[in-house]
Amino acid sequence: MENTVPRRRLEDLAWPDVRRGAARPGSTVIWPFGAIEQHGPHLPLATDALFADRLCDAVLERLDPALPIWRLPLQSLGFSPEHAGFAGTLSLSPDLLIALVVQIGTQLAEAGFRRLVLLNAHGGQIGLLEVAARQLRAGTPQLAVLPCFLWRGPEGIGELIPEPERSQGLHAGLAETSLMLHLRPELVGPARPADGPGLAPPPGWSLEGEAPASWLTREISTSGVVGDAGGASPQLGAELFERLVQGWQRRLEALLRSDWPPTPGSD
Fold this sequence. Notes:
Blueprint: H1 15-22, E1 28-33, H2 47-62, E2 69-71, H3 94-111, E3 115-120, H4 126-139, E4 144-149, H5 165-168, H6 174-183, E5 194-195, H7 217-220, E6 227-228, H8 234-256
Parallel strand pairs: 1-2, 1-3, 3-4
Antiparallel strand pairs: 5-6
Helix pairs in contact: 2-8, 3-4, 6-8
C-alpha cells in the first residue's frame, strides 16, 4: 500500500522534491525557535526549544496532507541575555540571530517558497524575531514572513491559568512546568518553586505586556523562576498542549488556504 503520510521535514527531501514543493502555490516553511537557558532548579535548559519542536510536529501531523507546508530543523540556540549569570544559559548576539533569519529566509525565497513562519517559544526574543522578520521581508518582498509566539494567539490558554499566575508567571512557573510534566516528565525535578519580584513595578507598568520594563532574571529571582510552579500537573499540561495545537492548527490552515502574501506591486 502506498504511504500517504507526507514528509514534512525539509531535510528529508531530495532537492528535486524541494524544487517541486517550493513551486506549489502558497508553499510554506515553518521554522521552530527555542532557547538554551535556565528554567529554574526543576526544568531543563531546553524547555523552550522542546516546546517549539514538539508543538511544530504535533500541528503538522494534524494538517491536511495535501497542504504545501514543511518544517526546518529546530533552532535551539536563541537570544537570552536576561538569563545570564545562571549556569548553562547560552545566548546568541542579536546581530547574529537577525543575520541567521535573513540569510536562511533569503535562500528559501530564492528556492521559490512563498511563506516563512517563525514559530518561537521563547518570550525574550519576540521583539528581536519581529525585527528580523521585517528585515527579511524588506529584502525579499515575494516572501511572507510571520513571526509568531507559541503562547500568544491560541484561544482558551489564559482561562486555564488562575491569577496572579496568569499575569505574573513569566518563567518556569505553573504553565511551563505543567507542559513539561506532560511532554517530558522525566526531565522535571521535584522542586516546585515560587519566586519573582519582591517589588512590583510602578502603577501602569509591568514586567511584560503593556508598558513593559526590561528585566534581568538575577535581579528579581534567586532561583531563576518568575512565577509559582506549585500546583503544576501533567493533566494541566495535557490541556494546555491540546489548546496550543488546536490554535496553531487553525491559524496555519487559514494561512495555507489563503492568497497571502499580496503580489509585490499589487493594489
